[in-house]
């Protein structure tokens, strides 16, 4: 399973990269705004800074909502770096744009996916990644992990190349459940990734090993 970090915060990206478990980054306009990144130049510079930190794919979302504008914006974003994946919303114009980018060899991430039918359209359009939002479905009392299972099954049935990118991941159990189901990628905050380290028996066990080692040394 690939681990992407879902943030535009350079410190968090560096920390995840330093851990040696990071495969890529996803961003969205809200995450960029949270870091105070504004203006086309500022946004493009920030994407380049992210690309310079990580080894893998970096999703950069278009703001446009019409085919022509999405194509223009996506092509500009793709010029920033080879690592850029153009993130396109799951709307009619977006599916057309994904089809266009796919034919041009530009990587895409179809975002704001909340149903299996939407995921099917993304795959047929040739999206590189599809992003079902697990946490946001849970927020409205719909089982987000169940959607991952549905999409993985459908994609396997037909051998679609589109990778299932479990997005809106909020906690370690989301990561584990999506991994069990065979999601290709998960994207979540640094806190969800580092929470995977936690187990009290590890801490207790290490403390005992070190104490025993110290005791033996004093004999
Ligand atoms: O980047 C898209 C998605 O991961 C958003 O997550 O936590 O805002 O629902 P969240």
List the helices and strands and how they pair.
Layout lengths: L1 E5 L3 H10 L4 E3 L2 H6 L5 H14 L3 E5 L5 H14 L3 E6 L2 H13 L3 E6 L2 H10 L3 E4 L1 H6 L4 H15 L4 E4 L5 H10 L3 E4 L1 H5 L5 H19 L1
Parallel strand pairs: 1-2, 1-8, 2-3, 3-4, 4-5, 5-6, 6-7, 7-8
The structure holds SN-glycerol-3-phosphate (G3P).
Bound compounds: SN-glycerol-3-phosphate
Order of helices and strands: EHEHHEHEHEHEHHEHEHH
Specify the helix fraction band. Answer: 55-70%
Biggest sheet, spatial arrangement of strands: 1-2-3-4-5-6-7-8
Which consecutive residue ranges, at least 5 long each, have pLDDT under 50?
Answer: none
Mean pLDDT over all positions = 97
Q: Classify the secondary structure makeup into a structural class.
A: alpha/beta
Supply Rg. Answer: 20 Å
| End-to-end C-alpha gap | 47 Å
Please state the overall shape, judged from the principal axes of the Cα atoms: globular
Major sheet size, sense and barrel closure: 8 strands, parallel, barrel
Provide a count of the helices: 11
């Amino acid at each position: 399973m690939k681990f992407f970090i879902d943030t535009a915060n350079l410190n968090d990206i560096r920390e995840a990269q330093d851990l040696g478990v990071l495969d890529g980054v996803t961003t969205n306009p809200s995450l960029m705004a949270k870091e105070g990144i504004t203006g086309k130049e500022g946004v493009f510079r920030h994407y380049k800074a992210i690309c310079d930190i990580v080894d893998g794919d970096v999703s950069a979302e278009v703001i446009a909502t019409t085919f022509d504008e999405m194509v223009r914006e996506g092509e500009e974003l793709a010029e920033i770096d080879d690592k850029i994946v153009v993130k396109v919303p799951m709307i009619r114009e977006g599916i057309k744009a994904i089809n266009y980018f796919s034919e041009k060899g530009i990587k895409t991430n179809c975002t704001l996916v909340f149903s299996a039918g939407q995921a099917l359209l993304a795959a047929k359009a040739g999206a590189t990644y599809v992003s079902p939002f697990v946490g946001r479905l849970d927020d409205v009392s719909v089982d987000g992990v169940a959607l991952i299972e549905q999409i993985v099954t459908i994609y396997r049935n037909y051998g679609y190349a589109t990778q299932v990118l479990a997005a809106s991941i909020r906690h370690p159990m989301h990561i584990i459940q999506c991994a069990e189901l065979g999601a290709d990628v998960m994207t979540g905050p640094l806190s969800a990734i580092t929470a995977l380290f936690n187990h009290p028996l590890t801490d207790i066990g290490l403390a005992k090993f070190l104490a025993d080692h110290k005791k033996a040394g004093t004999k």
